[in-house]
Specification:
The protein is of the alpha/beta class. Helices cover about 35% and strands about 20% of the residues. It has two domains: about 5-90 and about 185-260, HAD superfamily/HAD-like (Rossmann fold), CATH 3.40.50; about 90-180, Hypothetical Protein, Haloacid Dehalogenase-like Hydrolase, Chain: A, domain 2 (2-Layer Sandwich). The protein has helices at about 20-30, 45-50, 90-110, 140-145, 150-160, 185-195, 215-220, 230-245, and strands at about 5, 35-40, 65-70, 75-80, 80-85, 120-125, 130, 165-170, 175-180, 205, 225-230. The strands form two sheets. Strands 5-4-3-2-1-10-11 form a seven-stranded mixed β-sheet, with helices on one face. Strand 10 (about 205), helix 7 (about 215-220) and strand 11 (about 225-230) form a beta-alpha-beta unit. The two termini are about 30 Å apart.
């Protein structure tokens, strides 16, 4: 029997940089009553707070929730409040090097962006992220900008010549993440195993990019049983099924409007 369900955030639990739907929030609250849950994402802690935590009731059920921003380079657990177990940050010199390289690669790629919403480069401490359309870009714009990864591939090709000794991954719909080598969803999975004492065979991973080149594929590569979903609506059906399998029969999956 699985002891831990691990979710990606953007595209899986919620639309990119958007809050959880009321249905997903309700189902997560129910899931936390029957098993432990973790969320791994390349997003920052602030993104976790605005997308995930504002939609969840602040109660003892959160003791079953474990959060790993920036692919597990930070780890949080709940004990009356959110406690950070560790943060494996890049040095100031490393972050400066990455920002310079990202700026140069974007310029040299020739990739054109008609409009930008917010900061293009975000320093997340343990990760530096390029969001080509800006951190606050609307979903409609991000979804149409690089659906085949061609634009970001061009940027990444240049980056690999500029940044030695760093890991470069494409995330979401318009982002490129740079971290220390080996930082990906597999890294986060290993951190969960070490911290919670749960073997990989007892974990289940749910994500929207479990395919070669997708930023969720590393979780499957490390040996976690995985379920590929297309969007949060499919995730909702997966959570319902997990609750039905793991629950004691007393958990009722009523509509969110009637949830307590």
């Amino acid at each position: 029997m699985k002891q831990l369900v691990v979710f990606d955030l953007d595209g899986t639990l919620a639309a990119s940089k958007s809050p959880l739907s009321s249905e997903i929030a309700h189902l997560l609250r129910l899931l936390l009553t029957v098993t432990r849950v973790a969320v791994i994402s390349g997003g920052s802690w602030t993104q976790f707070e605005t997308q995930l935590l504002t939609s969840l009731t602040h109660d003892c059920r959160l003791e079953n929730l474990f959060l790993l921003p920036t692919c597990g380079t930070k780890f949080f657990h709940f004990d009356d409040e959110w406690v950070m177990d560790y943060s494996e940050d890049l040095t100031r010199s490393e972050r400066t090097t990455i920002v310079t390289a990202l700026t140069r690669a974007l310029e040299e790629s020739g990739v054109k962006v008609a409009k930008v919403w917010g900061d293009v480069i975000e320093d997340r401490g343990s990760q530096v992220t390029l969001s080509a359309l800006g951190q606050e870009a609307p979903l409609s714009a991000k979804g149409q900008w690089d659906p085949d990864f061609a634009k970001r591939t061009k940027i990444v090709t240049i980056l690999t010549t500029l940044l030695q000794g760093f890991a470069i991954n494409m995330g979401g719909t318009s982002s490129i993440d740079v971290t220390k080598p080996g930082i990906d969803k597999a890294y986060g999975i290993e951190k969960l195993r070490a911290h919670l004492g749960i073997e990989i065979a007892q974990m289940l991973f749910v994500g929207d990019a479990i395919f070669e080149g997708g930023n969720d594929f590393a979780a499957q590569r490390v040996g976690v049983d995985s379920i590929l979903v297309r969007d949060p609506r499919e995730t909702a059906r997966v959570i319902q099924t997990i609750i039905a399998c793991l629950g004691d029969g007393a958990t009722q999956m009523v509509a969110p409007a009637h949830a307590s």
